[in-house]
Structures are given as structure tokens and as C-alpha cells.
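Researcher: Here's the sequence for the chain we discussed earlier.
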Amino acid sequence: MNYIKRLSIEGFKKFSSLQIEFNEHMNILIGENEAGKSTILDALRTVLNQQYRTSDKAILRDLFNTEMVAAFQENPSIKTLPRIVIEVELELDPKQKNADYFYGEVYGKRKPQTEKYGIRFECSFDEEIGDGLDEFIRSGKIPYEYYALTWMTFANRPYQIVKRPVNFISIDTTNNGAVASFNYYNRALFASKYDEGVRIKVKNSFRDQLDQAFDKIGLPEIDDKRKFGVDSKKVTLESVLSVYEDSISLENRGSGMESLIKTKIALEKKSGLDVILMEEPENHLSFSTLRKMLNEIAEKQGTSQIIVATHSNMIASRLNLNNVLWITDQSARSLSSVDNEVADFFVKADDNAFLQLLLSKRAILVEGATEFLLVPYFYEKLTGRTAENDEVTIIKESQFAVL
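Model: Thanks. This is the structure I predict for it:
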């Protein structure tokens, strides 16, 4: 099975430095808001899908780590300019096509240096094309337009997305840009479902038949030399693809059902997906629908590597606490050492406040519903502050009685 083994981040968004090792099958990313769960998924997309490759360089303002930017501004020089390095180490079948294309020396800081499968993304100032900008840089300004974005395999060869080593898809229910989200999903599913030969054949046929269909419309010519036609660069097959179920496209279903269907399609063995990224799958789902989705994931998690970012107690518990990766400032802590009996209990008793307790800075355990309502009132009366303002979480003790 091909999967992502390790992710190394330097200078990207939330993280000045982060190392995270993934489980082969199930990974549940949890953490406070802004802890960096989405950044981890974004880093994987950036490397594997060459995200930001065609973006305007102004996007770098949002990608650079703020601590590194601040360090540069305190001591501006070419050497202190912020940069981004992301490495994705992979587990690949050495017999698969193009495996050697990704095999070579790990670039990161781990010692001793060993040969692995992987891809390295770097965003750094290009001193060659930026020659003569010393004074501009010493004034504390970052020359974004003179940065170069490069993707290289560990074999020190340019990474070409057509040789993507793992088939992966990203399901993001937090994305407000519905059209962009659907287009990405449809394209990714199309690319993973069919091999390159089938895709090329279908795309060529689509272009030919599109031209023929337009000619049959019978639109009169503009004049003796000019006529309207279809620009094939504007109308590509991938841009108009949609997934239908029972003659209804996913775009025309409710958000919750859309997420459920996307997940079900992605988990099907015939989809050929090695890695599935899921961002807050609980969004837009009712309690019962979320249970249904989790059952699908739990049953199929052995066929793909799944990486889920969530705030849901139910997801973390039902998919087993041993698979949880707790994201805190500049670190990722595995809960794989949680006792198996405890983890099994939470799988069955998923109506709990485990994440609330884990992520709380301070917690007060109360006996029941009455105390749950009264304690915040008494807390404010005694301290003059609300429990929320003091970052105190009130949790019913009954949810943890078994422990």
C-alpha cells in the first residue's frame, strides 16, 4: 500500500518548524482553533498537487510564517529572508512505475541522512534573478516577485504532477467556494479513477465532438473571412465534469448529503485512491448522518490512508483514540499509547467530552445536568468573571465515569 509516512514543515503559515509521522491507515488531527490542522492538510496539497504553482506571488504574504517574517524585519538581509520548505516522505512499492523517480536522499534535518521516497517543495528568494536588490532587502522589504517555487523529488529530479506517486483526493466541507470545491473534487476523482491513456482518449473525443456539435448549430458566419468557433482552451472536459447519483449532480444536493456521497465514492475500493484528506467532515451533517459516514470510514479504512482534521468528539472517539494526532504549538503528539481498553470504550461511548477535556486549559468536572447549569453562575458570582473569559471548561463528570 502506498501512503504518506512523514511530513516536515519549515516556515509555512502556522509552523516555523513541524515534524509529523502518520499512521498507515487512519489519522485524526485534533487541536484548538488555529492550531494548524488545516495547515497540515494544505501543506500536503501544496506538495502533492503543486498547489500555488500558478498563483500570483502576492499569495506568499499569507504563506510565510509570521515569526520568520518578524525575525527578518528585525535583522533584514538576504540570509534572513523568510522561506518555506515542505517535505513529504512516502511509502511506495519499489516495483511500481516511476518509484525510482522519487527515491533518494532525504533533504531534511534528520540524521543520519538516509535514502527514502519523497518530494520536497521549496519557496525561497532567487538570488540570481534578484541580483541588485540588496538595498531594497536591507530596508526591511520582502521581494515577493523574486521568489522561486520548486518541487523536486528526493532523487533530485523535477516533480511532474503527471507522475504523482499516490492517488489522493481532498474533501473540504469548510470551503465556501462551492464551485471551486466541486471542480477540484471532480478533477481529482477523474484523475484517480482512470489511467492516463483513457483520460487522453476521452478528452480528445470530447474536443472533436464539441467542435462538431457547434458546427451543427448553423450559426451564420460573421463575414467572408470570419466565423465563431469554440476555443478548446476555455472548454476542457475537466472544467465541465460533474458526478451524478440517481440523475442528480452532487452540486444540487444538500451540503450534508454532498459530503456523505463524496466520502462514500472516495472510500470505494474501485476508486483507486491511496490517500483521502478530509477537513471537518462533521460540517452540515446531522447526528445520524455523521454516524452513517463514520461507519463507512471505519469499515473501509484498511484500503486507503485517511487523514481527518476535526473538532468532533464523535469522530475522534468512533475512529479510535489511538489514531489521534494532537496538534499543539510546533508539535504533533500521537495518542497511540492510550490503553486499548480505554480506546475501545470511547469507540462504543462516543457521546463524550473527550476533546473538550483534552483541549481545555482548565476544567471543572461536575456531577450532573443541574451542576452543569449552576456552576458557571456561581463561578461568575465568586470571581466576577465568566468561566469562558478565564478559559475554564465545564464538563459533566458522568461522561468520564468509566475512567
